[in-house]
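Ligand: copper (II) ion. Inputs:
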Amino acid sequence: MDRLRVFRAVLALALGSASLAACAADCLPRVRDGWVRVPPAGLPMAAGFATFDNACDSAATIVSASSPAFEETTVHATRIEGGISRMREVPELRVAAGTVAEFAPGGLHLMLMRPTRPLEAGDKVPVEFRLADGRVVRAEFIVRRM
Ligand SMILES: [Cu+2]
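Predicted complex:
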């Protein structure tokens, strides 16, 4: 192997590992199939559902969520305790590398309080998930009426 070849091999190795590192840092989980379930008129709350897909090679921890369409947005989990369905706030939700967190009726959901304007079926609502490392995952949820 001549010198130029060695140099090229070293360069390729260095660039390869650099782009791999950049890839890991840039990888952001994605939110799919987001939708908002709006209850019958009058109730000042709604629930948001989606698939939070962490296809990255490190865990992502959701520490908060927000939407300009609601005054307050929190991550909730529904559990059956003593035959009664109860909701609890989830202050931190860790989504392991290569896994998804399903926000679905009867389980995890976004608790969306006090809409800032009336919501109609088909409306699109922006939602942001803030991660423990400060990064933000943006999504769009579509409104459905019950
Ligand atoms: Cu709730």
